[in-house]
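Annual report, structural modelling task.

Input specification for the adenine complex:
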Amino acid sequence: MRFDVFTLLPDVFPPYLESSILQRARQRGLIDVRIHNIRDWATDRHHVTDDEPYGGGGGMVMKPEPVFAAVESLRASLDKRLGTMPEPVPSSSLPGLTARAGGAGCPVILLTPQGRVFNQKIALQLAAHPHLALICGRYEGMDERIREYLVTDEISIGDYVLTGGELPALVLIDAIARLLPGVLGDPDGAADDSHAAGLLEYPHYTRPPEFRGWRVPDILLSGDHAKIAKWRREQSLLRTLKRRPDLLKNALLSEADLTILNQIEKDKGDSQ
Ligand code: ADE
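The model returned the following structure:
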């Protein structure tokens, strides 16, 4: 899978991409991450990429020209090879982001606190694309024409504001890459993740069986795989109920899960 990242801070990417799992995935050709410096497409003498906001107010705004030029140069090079980038559609003519993100081409995603909030489901959907373009915002904001006429999707990594879209872009790359076949050492590695089936993951333990007097639950040492699987499912449900009950309404739950949840609620009621 290929990622093209457009940023004003290209130097922040290599340290993370050259570490551990992502480095191995790149070396094995499972992911190809290309970092583009938006400043390279600023045509004036000083390579200026920001300007004052029309209408006044604090902060600077990212200029449209270099961002359009950067993404369009990628689009042109791909068109020559494959013809894969979708034509941008003005967002004002469409009902919402879902429609803008549609189409078989390469999504052009703006990382912004105003985007739809990233989660595991979105990571899975994006992992199905062979190619993503990610634009990292900086300054107080981007010229609105970038949103309207260049990007096909806008994603936030949470309801807080960072100084730019670089960390969010790395978050997306990391969450998506680990879902691709062969990236994690264990082929089932991503299947049990917290959020994979809409639940938080069960607790993990490793050796020693006792540490400072705290014992690993006996069941995990029993060797009874059916019982261990059942215990893990219960723990996963219990944890989700306690910490993130909001997740349960969208989780894939079996009859057995519902029985367990009812029992937990009943036990809670009895002990009150
Ligand atoms: N840029 C600044 N804050 C952000 C956030 N929370 N998500 C995505 N991009 C951002």
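The pocket of adenine is lined by residues 111-113, 137, 156-158, 160-162, 164-165, 168 (CB under 6 Å).
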